[in-house]
Design a protein that fits this description.
Layout (H helix, E strand, L loop, with lengths): L75 H33 L4 H17 L7 H15 L5 H17 L3 H7 L2 H11 L3 H17 L1 H6 L2 H7 L6 H15 L8 H4 L2 H7 L5 H18 L3 H9 L2 H9 L9 H17 L1 H9 L2 H10 L10 H6 L4 H11 L11 H12 L1 H20 L4 H17 L2 H8 L4 H8 L5 H29 L1 H9 L43 H5 L8 H13 L13 H20 L8 H15 L7 H6 L2 H10 L13 H19 L11 H16 L15 E3 L5 E3 L4 E7 L14 E3 L5 H12 L10 H8 L18 H7 L5 H5 L2 H22 L6 H4 L2 E3 L5 E3 L2 H8 L7 E5 L2 E2 L6 H11 L7 H6 L1 E8 L3 H24 L6 H4 L14 H17 L1 H14 L24 H10 L3 H6 L4 H9 L6 H13 L29 E6 L4 H12 L5 E6 L5 E2 H14 L45 E2 L2 E2 H21 L9 H7 L6 H4 L4 H22 L26 E2 L2 E5 L14 H13 L4 H12 L12 H9 L8 H7 E4 L7 H12 ...
Parallel strand pairs: 3-9, 10-11, 17-18, 18-20
Antiparallel strand pairs: 1-2, 3-4, 5-6, 7-8, 7-9, 11-12, 13-14, 15-16, 19-20
Helix pairs in contact: 1-2, 1-3, 2-4, 3-4, 4-7, 5-7, 6-7, 6-9, 7-10, 9-10, 10-13, 12-13, 13-16, 15-16, 16-17, 16-20, 18-22, 20-23, 21-22, 22-23, 23-26, 25-26, 26-27, 26-29, 27-29, 30-31, 30-33, 31-34, 33-47, 34-48, 35-47, 48-58, 55-60, 56-61, 58-59, 64-65
């Protein structure tokens, strides 16, 4: 080997690929490693680099986004330049062709080696820079044999090197050159040079050339032995060249032929050895190659055994271990699990090795950390082989256990079974690791495929386990309750597995589990499968919804859906390809009958004897409570007050007693239904959403909540775990997980394609349309028939909107030639500014022609006209404004329903023409009811949602997307005969409400949440008699009771004082410790919503199943805060008319306060002045509040821009709103005391309980020189800033009070809420009202007969002695009454005074400010989207985390140390100690210094993006003399290595104190 063969030093060995400088030799990407040719940002920044804020600023300024050059110019100068460029390229191409001919001629002649070298050098340069099209196929074919011949040159290595380099470049310039080179034996020549390895640089160039050829000619490379050639001496090369070599192997292995396996099997030992390497890219290439080899030989057991002999199983298991240092990309990780599946399915050696390696422990760790929401795939992906991780794991687990059925038994299956019988410890270890995890997978809302796979593994494990071992394992899991929950699924594949598991357990452990099956309801589930009609005798037919499909012996419904029988087979069988189901028609019924006959004695089948003692006792209590409720109907609820308390106390004692109560007993007993009926006074089953009996019903509901609260909240000082409310909530959540079956419907097979929708608006859509035929219902005589045509329907339009379209066509009041409103809009409003005019569009033809030709027109015509597609969203929106807005005043599309315009004073005006149009033009209003297969469709839902719900109702848990769009749906319509009646009833109801409003005003203390509990419908698909509905309603009541615990407890104390049970007003003070809000979260529903929100079509078009939005509206507490944040961002900021984009699995879901919005919004840069922050904010919001753009800030005369300055701007704006003198907040009394102000007084409003609006009298427009119009403008601006901060993911630093957050989310305030911002005022008002109520009770009881006497004194003084006037406390300018005579408060007018004070404080005195805030907020997005959060969560979302993490381990986990620092470096240890020692203000200052905001985003340090990075700062002088510097846009701190902790603290405090207020180069 000559001296040229020495290994050359590579930059890749010293620096990461993304930090290497680009040399001239690497100018051409084709000649370097293709894996490193991508552009990427550096992972870290060098410690000596310039770290100013401008360094990472936005690359586009505000103006740049609007420049024409960004989108291409169409002017004449541009065309001229384009022509000049084309002429230049043609001339250059002609010149290059001449040069190629000269080179070809020179190489063909007999010349000396020096001339050959010169010609080859010229050829390489020519190939590197030649113009496109300069090299013809004839020229490439002519050059190939010459270059191959020179590559075989034996005497001159330089000629070999240049010839092979020319071959590499030739493949780049002309891809077909690979075929020419192969034909002239280039591959054997290159392989020969590789095997010889005489010169290292020649060998490296050979690898580069083979990598190019293998792309186009993999089979030729395989047959020439290229795999072994590139692998034989791979250890001699650098890492970058090794990657190139493995790329060639990957290219070849992707196209392995079906015969002759020997050329690639001999490479397996080397490939397996390469899996030990640490380079990730290298390992991924090796893994890809081995996966492809395994796919090729998966049907050959001998070949699979050969793979296992080289420890492939060991390496693969090591790589999938969560503790492995080499982290692979997700597809490769999943592919390795699939590799193990293939090995285990065909090799007994692999099967044994996997058990010996304890693979069950590794898979347990993977499943425990796996997010089910990332594991949702469509069945199509399973058929194509691109399965997800969960599916592959379940396939592997199924292969680790033998098949049960005899028709699948074979020699390998027998060997597997014998292995487990001979070594039972392996099976026991398998069960200990995975049984509980698989049960958790099913219980966590897994999709049907994962549920079936998990049950299949459980079934096999229980079948092969011995009784003693099985009993020991099942003690740790409530298998009976688990099976009872599985029986609520409707798929017969799942049911048969559940029955098989139950049968196996009963056959082995009948004595141990028979009673448990009875207690948990398994017996009743099996009985329901045999006799569904018997379910009606139970109060709650838990299993009445089980329906067995009668087509189990038929083929699967469509070619795209794969039967569950084959979902976890290692390969596709002929039966699977034909779709024939393995289950017999009556298999479920037969097995259920067998279980019932063999294991349930005949005497147990009797209803009463089949019930447990606990169930019978609970039923008795439920019946007693129901009877008492019926007795109280129409009576004063207080008469039976103590009787109710006695029964409820007994019920709670039973529920929290020593005897365990199963979920089945809890639901089936009727306890839930009875308590819910008691709490709601029977109102929760009503169809309307308001209490039927006005104040009387509200009063009764309040008294019942108070009584129930005595039971649940009485132990408020007890430990949290002992609270009855917590125990009951957990029991209800467990019951909900068992009984709910909300569908998860995904559309992964959705492909973007353009369609044309006729109904309800004629427009082009970027998504497919549904096909429907509208048919008149039988017996309907008032409507015309409209079933002659099949219409394309926008799938995401509501049924109300479809009714608007259809009504003019079917109403007999109209003539037959009347056109629908949408077509009229297209004709009549063609010149209107509301509609985009596009005269070249087919949409502008005459409506008659359009309507008659639209169905038969080719959609492809529309695809070729991008201008039509571009105008479609605007056209659709305009049509909605002209039609559906009039017809759908009740819909929740805020952006289309209300248009607001700001006036100078900050107020808004709404265009409410839709309400007048609704009443004036009666014929336009939708009066049609729609039915699909006999089921009435929800008017508020879309047709797409209605179809999905209907398919799920009939037992289809998996929806075939292809069939969904292909099928023609026959929808019948009928006239809504109740519409006119309901209108008149509504008017009567409104009159009734107004008549009792005065009465309810006197009883202001009734908390509004009692009636709010009944307002929102829980879920439209649920019948009110189902256990799911009752559980949800009960949970909602408990959650409300927990949030309003202070209200309830205070109200109880006031009742006690009024009734004379206590005489001390101090007893009214309540200290409440509520149950944490996360205790009401349903993990199963949270997982389901996570999965559903990953559906790209559902996200972009708002087509989530109805239960998602309805539960989020009525019971948002069921979902975790993080998931609600994702839902909020999707609902508030998603682009409904944009094509769907799949959500990345790495998306943190909106919690990150610093993360930019991922919706692709444009960025706008705005320049602000530090000395005029509010003025700059006003100008910014005037420009951009209504625009969907991300705002970035730069300061005048400062170089900083980007994330850091923007966050600081929002912080400064927050502080400006807190300054005194604005007359916005209650504690701002500077206007009243300007003369008494001291120079040292604080310039900020100090409000310990948070900011709340200052009351302004409606008749006052100016106060001490401050105009109220200016105050309103400030609130409008505040609303805009808050909404924009939420939209852009910025953090504010403004302490709003809890009551103000409640006003944001639309909740009504009461006197109890005054306690959250003015505790002293609230205390006095409550005491006053308690005195008033005591006087009222005494008078109503007839003072002479009462057992106590009324004392008119208030804390040893009369009311008159207090000398209170009718002015608002703290605001003498605010007069509470217009009657001049009533100047002082007396006992007679005390209640009036209290009511007026409360009204001024939380209603009339602040309503205009609150409306101004909401109007500004709504300019950005609808404030109604905030209603999914509580007050505390909204503060966290808007203002981030209150506390800086103080745990050292937590900081180490979420801080990155780089460029000279590690977690154990002394300066880092000192810094973390200093941060922990900082007080709250110092920690805020540190965060402001490093990130630009004084508070961390929601989620704390873990959500900070970019991650907080600390690097070593290299100082030119002594480190102790230097200061730390930061780059706020990257959260990047450069810290000098100070000599001591004291010095570091001193310099750090100086920097964070003096370094505020500007952004300059550091």
């Amino acid at each position: 080997m000559g001296n040229r063969g020495q290994k050359r030093p590579e930059m890749v060995d010293e620096f990461p690929a993304d930090k290497r400088a680009c040399s001239s030799l690497e100018f051409r990407a084709s000649s370097s490693n293709p894996m490193n040719s991508r552009n990427s940002m550096p992972e870290g920044l060098d410690g000596d680099m310039d770290t100013s804020s401008s360094a990472s600023g936005s690359t586009r300024s505000e103006g740049e986004g609007d420049k024409d050059s960004a989108y291409g110019s169409c002017d004449s100068d541009g065309e001229q330049r384009q022509n000049i460029l084309h002429d230049y390229q043609r001339r250059r191409s002609s010149s290059d062709q001449g040069k190629f001919n000269q080179v070809l001629t020179s190489l063909g002649q007999v010349v000396d080696e020096s001339e050959t070298l010169a010609t080859l050098t010229e050829l390489c340069e020519l190939l590197s820079f030649c113009a496109d099209g300069a090299l013809s196929s004839l020229m490439a074919d002519s050059l190939s044999p010459i270059l191959v011949k020179l590559a075989r040159h034996e005497s001159n290595p330089d000629i070999m090197l240049l010839a092979i380099r020319a071959i590499t470049y030739l493949c780049d310039v002309h891809p077909r050159s690979s075929g020419f080179l192969v034909r002239h034996d280039a591959v054997p020549a290159l392989c020969q040079r590789l095997i010889a390895v005489e010169y290292l640089d020649v060998a490296e160039q050979c690898l580069q050339a083979l990598e190019k050829i293998s792309h186009e000619e993999p089979l030729a490379c395989l047959q020439s032995g290229a795999i072994m050639a590139v692998l034989t001496h791979i250890d001699f090369f650098s890492t970058s060249i090794q990657r190139v070599a493995l790329s060639s192997v990957v290219n070849i292995c992707k196209k392995l032929p079906s015969e002759c396996p020997s050329p690639f099997m001999e490479a397996v030992p080397i490939l397996c050895n390469l899996l030990r390497y640490e380079d990730r890219q290298l390992v991924e290439n090796v893994a890809t190659s081995l996966i492809k080899i395994a796919e090729r030989v998966q049907d050959n057991s001998d070949m699979l055994d050969e793979l296992c002999k080289h420890e492939l199983v060991h390496h693969a298991v090591h790589l999938i271990d969560v503790k492995c240092r080499t982290t692979l990309c997700q597809p490769l990780y999943t592919g390795l699990i699939g590799l193990l599946v293939k090995l285990a399915s065909g090799s007994i050696l692999a099967f044994r090795t996997l058990f010996e390696l304890r693979v069950s422990s590794i898979l347990k760790a993977v499943l425990s950390t796996y997010d089910l929401s990332q594991g949702m795939v469509s069945p199509n992906m399973m058929v194509d082989g691109h399965c997800n991780q969960m599916h592959e794991i379940l396939k592997l687990l199924n292969q680790l256990l033998p098949n049960i059925t005899e028709d699948h038994s074979g020699p390998l299956n027998t060997e597997k079974e014998a292995f487990l019988v001979n070594k039972p410890d392996n099976l026991q270890k398998f069960g200990m690791d995975l049984l509980s995890v698989l049960i958790q997978v099913v219980n966590s809302g897994a999709n049907l495929y994962d549920c079936y796979g998990s049950l299949s593994v459980i079934n096999k494990f229980i079948y092969f386990s011995k009784s003693v071992m099985l009993l020991e394992l099942l003690k740790e899991t409530n298998i009976s309750s688990f099976l009872a929950g599985v029986f609520t699924r409707k798929d017969h594949h799942v049911l048969i597995l559940a029955l098989q598991i139950a049968a196996t357990i009963l056959s082995k452990l009948s004595d141990n589990f028979l009673n448990s099956f009875l207690k948990e309801g398994v017996y009743f589930a099996v009985d329901a499968l045999l006799t569904p009609e018997k379910c009606s005798q139970f109060l709650f037919p838990l299993f009445g919804g089980i329906q067995l499909s009668d087509d189990s012996n038929k083929k699967c419904a469509t070619r795209n859906l794969r039967c569950l029988c084959y979902a976890f087979d290692s390969g596709l069988s002929s039966a699977s390809e034909t779709g024939t189901c393995r289950l017999e028609k009556d298999s479920v019924h037969s097995l259920a009958k067998q279980i019932s006959t063999n294991y349930f004695a005949t005497e147990v089948l009797k209803t009463e004897e089949g019930l447990t003692d606990v169930l019978q006792k609970l039923r008795t209590l439920a019946a007693a409570l129901t009877d008492l409720i019926n007795m109280s109907m129409g009576k004063d609820g207080t008469e039976l007050h103590e009787e109710f308390y006695t029964i409820l106390h007994e019920i709670m004692a039973k529920l929290n007693g020593k005897d365990p109560i199963s979920t089945f007993e809890f639901i089936e007993s009727g306890i839930v239904k009875a308590i819910v009926k008691y709490l709601s006074n029977g109102e929760y089953l009503r169809e309307n959403t308001e209490l039927s009996s006005g104040f009387d019903c509200s009063y009764n509901v309040e008294r019942r909540f108070l009584l129930f609260g005595r039971l649940l909240l009485s132990s408020i000082d007890a430990p949290l775990e002992d609270l009855p409310l917590l125990a009951l909530a957990r029991k209800l959540l467990t019951a909900l997980s068992s009984v709910e079956n909300f569908p998860i419907i995904l559309n992964h097979s959705y492909k973007k394609r353009n369609s044309y929708a006729i109904v309800p608006h004629i427009r082009c859509t970027p998504y497919p349309c549904l096909r429907a035929q509208f048919m008149r219902g039988e017996g309907e005589t008032c409507l015309s028939d409209y079933s002659e045509d099949v219409l394309t329907v926008d799938p995401f339009s509501s049924m109300d909107a479809i009714g608007v379209y259809l009504w003019p066509k079917v109403s007999k009041n109209r003539t037959g030639n009347i056109k629908p409103a949408a077509i009229q809009a297209l004709c009549g409003l063609e010149s209107s500014s509301q509609l985009p005019s596009d005269k070249s569009s087919p949409g502008c033809r005459s409506p008659d022609h359009m309507e008659s030709k639209i169905i038969s027109s080719d959609v492809k015509e529309l695809e070729d006209k991008p201008d039509i597609l571009r105008s479609a969203p605007e056209e659709g929106n305009s049509l909605r404004q002209t039609t559906s807005e009039i017809a759908e005043p009740g819909q929740g599309h805020m952006e289309n329903r209300q248009h607001t315009s700001s006036h100078e004073d900050g107020s808004t005006s709404s265009e409410t023409s839709e309400s007048s149009g609704y009443s004036s033009n009666e014929d336009i209003s939708p009066k049609l009811l729609f039915f699909l297969e006999g089921q009435q469709l929800d008017q508020a839902s879309s047709l797409y949602q209605a179809i999905l719900q209907q398919q799920f109702n009939v037992g289809r848990e998996i929806v075939d997307s292809a069939k969904l769009w292909r099928e023609v749906y026959k929808i019948t319509y009928r006239r809504d005969v109740k519409s006119t009646e309901s209108c008149s009833q509504d008017h009567q109801h409104q009159a009734c409400d107004s008549s009792v409003s005065d009465i309810m005003g006197r009883y202001w203390q009734c908390t509004p949440f009692f009636s709010d509990t009944f307002v929102s419908k829980i879920a439209s698909g649920l019948e009110t008699s189902t256990p799911v509905h009752d559980v949800l309603f009960f949970l909602k009541s408990l959650e409300c009771m927990n949030r309003f615990a202070f209200h309830l407890m205070t109200r109880q104390r006031m009742h006690a004082f009024a009734e004379g049970r206590t005489d001390n007003l101090d007893d009214l003070q309540v200290s409440v410790l509520g149950v944490p809000q996360n205790e009401f979260v349903s993990s199963k529903l949270t997982e389901k919503l996570e999965q559903q929100m990953r559906d790209p079509l559902a996200i972009s078009m708002g087509s989530l199943p109805l239960w998602c939005s309805q539960l989020m509206t009525s019971c948002p507490f069921l979902f975790a805060f993080e998931v609600r944040c994702k839902y909020f961002r999707l609902a508030a900021f998603s682009q409904q008319q944009s094509p769907p984009h799949p959500i990345s699995h790495n998306d943190s879901g909106g919690l990150n306060g610093r993360r930019q919005n991922a919706s692709g919004l444009p960025r706008k840069r705005f320049s602000v002045c530090r000395n005029h922050i509010l003025e700059s904010a006003t100008q910014m919001m005037d420009l951009y509040a209504r625009q969907k753009a991300i705002l970035e800030v730069e300061y005048n005369e400062e170089v900083g821009t980007g994330l850091g300055p923007t966050l600081e701007f929002y912080t400064l704006v927050s502080h400006e709103f807190q300054k005194t003198g604005l007359s916005m907040w209650r504690e701002d009394h500077t206007l009243l005391h300007k003369t008494g102000m001291q120079a040292g007084d604080s310039e900020f409003v100090r409000s310990p309980c948070g900011l709340f609006p200052r009351p302004w009298l409606s008749t006052v427009s100016t106060l001490c020189g401050t105009e109220f119009s200016e105050v309103k403008k400030k609130f409008v601006l505040l609303g805009q800033v808050v909404a924009k901060a939420l939209q852009d993911g910025r953090v504010l630093d403004i302490p709003f009070s809890k009551a103000f957050y409640k006003l944001m989310i639309g909740q009504e305030l009461t006197v109890y809420d005054i306690h959250s911002f003015d505790p002293e005022l609230a205390r006095v008002l409550l005491e006053f009202q308690a005195v008033v109520e005591r006087k009222r009770v005494l008078e109503s009881a007839g003072g002479e007969n009462s057992t106590f006497k009324f004392d008119p004194c208030f804390r040893n003084a009369t009311i008159e002695d207090l000398y209170l006037d009718f002015s608002l406390p703290g605001y003498p300018d605010y007069v509470l009454t217009v009657v001049p005579e009533e100047k002082l408060v007396t006992m007679e007018n005390l209640e009036e005074y209290v009511l007026a004070t409360v009204d001024a404080t939380i209603n009339v005195g602040i309503c205009r400010q609150v409306e101004a805030f909401k109007s500004g907020f709504n300019q950005v997005f609808s404030i109604q989207h905030l209603q999914v959060f509580t007050e505390e969560e909204l503060e966290r979302l808007l203002c981030g985390e209150r506390e800086f993490c103080s745990q050292s381990n937590e900081m180490l986990d979420h801080i990155k140390f780089d460029h000279g620092y590690t977690a154990s470096s002394p300066p880092i240890i000192n810094l973390l100690q200093i941060i922990r020692e900082f007080d709250r203000e110092q920690q805020r200052a540190f965060l402001q210094f490093v990130t630009g905001a004084p508070r961390l985003p929601p989620g704390g340090l873990a959500s900070l993006n970019p991650k907080l990075t600390i690097v070593r700062k290299h100082c030119s002088r002594c480190a102790d003399a230097d200061l730390p510097s930061v780059m706020t846009c990257a959260n990047y701190l450069k810290l000098p290595p100070y000599s001591s902790k004291e010095t570091m603290k001193e310099k750090l405090l100086y920097a964070i104190t003096e370094g505020q207020g500007s952004f300059h180069l550091s």
